[in-house]
């Protein structure tokens, strides 16, 4: 069951100056819960506090996501930003492709469209080779080579629902996420095919050491609902 | 097996003034039966008499539906109307979306298209949160928040096959249903995911306390056929 | 496990005069490996050395292939060329069809599109009848009759990744392969349906007597990566 520890979060998200430090409180644990972003806004988001610093040379990011947004609408799916850089962004682009950006130009994948039903989506990247791929319902996309040698910087902020364009905000409704996200997990290494498939089918896998949905520390802002997963 | 009690229905459907009070007779029970609406008409429909009044603050509506109608054709799938309001309407819109209306503006979902094969379709709504979703073949769509706090009014009439636009009729052929409907059930609460999936797979679930296909009281009007489900 | 025998290949590929004789070294064995062609180039390819001469009056060619390339982009999937002829080419055409050419005009098939996920693709042809078909995920396309009585000439060169338009090169980036190829096998006879399906599902089948992925002799040129299949 989810633990509903609530404590004040003043100053926790130093990257953003505005409402976060005023209105939000940290909660813990999202087991069997879904985040519902019901409307298009420029103020609804969930800040997620990682269990360890996100200076990364490899990662696996997984989530289950559903949206009703029309196909030609840009959608932010995951945003990790430090003061000066978009460190790790995942988007659905206007042309329907899913993209992955680290500090500059991104890389683009043709995947089955996101729909009103949940898609299980993982992303893996490893700095040594630059090999990166998305995994949809446990099936790997074609590998692409993206920024070999790069490192993701630590001490930033992870948001779901909005893309912060700059240090002190810059949220845009037309990029916001509308729909549902659940079961987000992140590891600081590349999971094997069998592990990703196990995660997809809801079997037991090693808990995310950066984000673990069941023990997630998070802060709700604006109109985001935490709903039983049913 | 279905019970074929027939009794006269004069005056039962007080909302409509016209042919209902003259031609139809109430029948009971549709176990293993399918309603076939073979042609486009402005006079064929089935009135369904609920087991309890439909003053509702939550519901689950399920049915199996198949149609050959072209994609750009508007189709009424379920209509519950009181004297002044469309209390609960389900449509397939001209743009292919499935919509749900209560007393005014509706909410729209992108679902897989209805086809010549049967689609199992459920709709859940709960007033407290406004959370609503369609369930297709047991899979839930993205939640939408629709009219939290609203109540559906009692003492109206439920029709399949036509949309009554006003108190005394106003049926339109171009909105009529053509195809098959079976296994319609309705509950005055939100069924759990596992119950909806059980219903989808034809397993045993609690009988609908508003509508129970096996014990349905209904009145056929115009060209509607009751056919063995084979 | 793959055997990584490396020996010099000077002069092995006599058909082409250019960099092959200078830069490449033959390697052996690709068990559990994938060839990743990460970028569009006019210089990245893999030359594959057959286990026996390719004077053929029948064959089965199988591979698993994934690509992110847009649908309207021509793609070379397999090229076997002798000095004067394209002996056996497989393409995805600009109109999305998959084609098969031997020494002149080709034959064209409407198959499911190649995607970012792996497609298992086989091609069978037999000179006596001319019957040819593609097999996608173990399912056979409609037969076509193509060049009955024809023979494929020996002593050519097989390339993956590029189409050599003439004796001394003529590679074009806009025809190059970008994506992944794995598990390529070729036999000098037509495999039965059950054998092709067994191959599709990864079951044991007779090893390819022309190409056997696990014992493949190959030479990497340009930017081609050999990656663990995970």
Automatic annotation (TrEMBL), chains A, B, C:
<dbReference type="GO" id="GO:0005576">
    <property type="term" value="C:extracellular region"/>
</dbReference>
<dbReference type="Pfam" id="PF00354">
    <property type="entry name" value="Pentaxin"/>
</dbReference>
<dbReference type="InterPro" id="IPR051005">
    <property type="entry name" value="Pentraxin_domain"/>
</dbReference>
<feature type="domain" description="Pentraxin (PTX)">
    <location>
        <begin position="31"/>
        <end position="230"/>
    </location>
</feature>
<dbReference type="InterPro" id="IPR001759">
    <property type="entry name" value="PTX_dom"/>
</dbReference>
<keyword id="KW-0479">Metal-binding</keyword>
<comment type="similarity">
    <text>Belongs to the pentraxin family.</text>
</comment>
<dbReference type="GO" id="GO:0046872">
    <property type="term" value="F:metal ion binding"/>
</dbReference>
<keyword id="KW-0106">Calcium</keyword>
<comment type="subunit">
    <text>Homopentamer. Pentaxin (or pentraxin) have a discoid arrangement of 5 non-covalently bound subunits.</text>
</comment>
<protein>
    <recommendedName>
        <fullName>Pentraxin family member</fullName>
    </recommendedName>
</protein>
<dbReference type="InterPro" id="IPR013320">
    <property type="entry name" value="ConA-like_dom_sf"/>
</dbReference>
């Amino acid at each position: 069951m989810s633990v509903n520890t609530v404590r004040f979060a003043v100053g926790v998200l130093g990257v953003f100056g505005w409402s976060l430090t005023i209105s939000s409180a940290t909660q813990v644990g999202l087991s069997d819960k879904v985040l519902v972003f019901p409307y298009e806004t420029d103020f609804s988001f969930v800040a997620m506090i990682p269990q360890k610093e996100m200076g990364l040379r490899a990662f696996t990011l997984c989530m289950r996501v559903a949206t009703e947004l029309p196909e030609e609408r840009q959608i932010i799916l995951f945003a990790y930003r430090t003061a000066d850089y978009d460190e790790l962004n995942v988007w659905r682009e206007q042309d329907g492709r899913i993209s992955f950006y680290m500090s500059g130009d991104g890389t683009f994948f043709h995947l089955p469209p996101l729909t009103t039903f949940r898609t299980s989506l993982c992303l893996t990247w490893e700095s040594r080779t630059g090999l990166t791929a998305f995994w949809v319902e446990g099936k790997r996309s074609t590998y692409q080579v993206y920024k070999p040698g790069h490192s993701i910087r630590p001490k930033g902020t992870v948001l779901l629902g909005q893309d912060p364009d700059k240090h002190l905000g810059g949220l845009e409704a037309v990029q916001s996420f509308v729909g549902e996200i659940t079961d987000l997990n992140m590891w600081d290494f590349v999971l094997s095919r069998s592990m990703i498939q196990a995660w997809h089918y809801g079997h037991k896998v090693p808990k995310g050491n950066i984000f673990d949905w069941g023990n997630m520390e998070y802060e709700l802002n604006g109109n985001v609902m935490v709903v039983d997963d049913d």
